[in-house]
Amino acid sequence: MYTPELQDQHLGLGIDAGGTQTRWALAAAGGRIVAEGTVGGLSALQMGSAEGRETVQATFEAITRDVLAHGRPLAVRAGVTGYGGDGGPLQQSLGALLGLAPKAIVLSNDIEIAYLASFRPGEGYLVYSGTGSIGAFIDEHHGFHRAGGRGVVLDDGGGGFWIAREALRHIWRREDEAPGAWESSPMAHAVFQHVGGSDWSFSRQFIYGRERGEVGKLAIAVAATAERDPAAAAILREAGHELARLAQALVSRFGPRPVALAGRAAELHPVIVETMRAALPPDTILSQTGVRAHYAAARLAAADAQHPNPSPP
C-alpha cells in the first residue's frame, strides 16, 4: 500500500529478471525491504524481436504498476538474464515508466546480482541453476568470470530447460525403439500431461514454440516422478554432475573457495545437490542458498538513491 512517508526513504528498486519469473523489491534507506512482488519472466534477448520487445514492455508496465502502489523509487538496480551490455533501450523504457533518467537505472547480468547476494567479491563461487545454468566468480577487483551460461541452445547443463529437454529426448528415443513405451513410464505420463498430449505434435509445439522459461517449468514434472521412474532420477543425477562441472571449472582456474548453489531448478529434488556434493572434491565447502537477488539489488539501489550518480556493482 502506498504511504507518503516512504517517499522520504530514498527508495531503491531491485529487479531480478529470469526466464521463468521476474522478482522485484523496494528497499528504503538502510536496506529495509518495504515491498516486493513477482511478475512474468523476461530476458534481454527478447529485445531482438518486435514481439519480444512488446513482452518486455508489458512486464515493465506490470512491475511499475505494482511498485508505484507503494512508492516511487529514486534509483533502480536490475539484473536481467541475457544482458550483454547494451542496456540503452531497457533503461529508456523502464525510466519512462518510472519517471527516472536513464542514468538512475543500472543494469547488469542477473547472475552478478545473485553473486553479490551470496558473497563479497573474491570470497566464493556461485553456481546458479534456474531456467539455464552458470558458474560465476567476481574477483577482488570486481572482474566477472563465468563458467557455462552460454544459453539453452548451446548448453546450460543442469538447468530447468536442460532437464526438460533431456526428459523429452529420453521419452522420444524410447518411442523410436518401442512405440507405446511411454505408457509404462511415470515420467512420460507427467511430461505428456504438462505438454498437452502424447502425440509428437504436442511435444514439438512445446519445445520449439514456447519461451525457454515456460519449457523450463517442465522440469517440475520430471522431478515429481523421480521416486517412481529411474529415468527421471538419472536425469536429475546428471543435472547434479553438470552443476558440479561448473564449480570445478572455476576452482581449477582460481583455486579452492566455498561454493554456493542457488536457483529454483537446484531445489527441484535433493538428489541434485547430493550428486553435486559427491562429485566435488571432499574438502569443498558447498552450501545451498535460497538467494534473494531482488533484495540485494534493492539494497544496492537504495544506496544509489543517496547519491546522484549511481555506479555499477
What does this structure look like?
Helix content is 43%, strand content 18%. By secondary structure, the chain is of the alpha/beta class. It folds into two domains: 4-114 and 293-304, 2-Layer Sandwich (Nucleotidyltransferase, domain 5), CATH 3.30.420.40; 120-290, Nucleotidyltransferase, domain 5 (2-Layer Sandwich). Strands 3-2-1-4-5 form a five-stranded mixed β-sheet. Strands 8-7-6-9-10 form a five-stranded mixed β-sheet, with helices on both faces. Helix 2 (88-98) links the parallel strand 4 and strand 5. It starts with 11 loop residues before the first strand and ends in a 9-residue tail after the last helix. The mean pLDDT is 89.
Topology order in helix (H) and strand (E) letters: EEEHEHEHEEEHHHHHHEHEH
Q: Can you identify the CATH class of the largest domain?
A: Alpha Beta
Percent of residues in β-strands: 15-25%
* Share of helix, binned: 40-55%
Biggest sheet strand order reads: 3-2-1-4-5
Number of helices: 11
User: How many E-type strands?
Assistant: 10
Do you know the CATH topology of the largest domain? Nucleotidyltransferase, domain 5
First-residue to last-residue Cα separation? 30 Å
Could you report the average pLDDT, rounded to the nearest whole number? 89
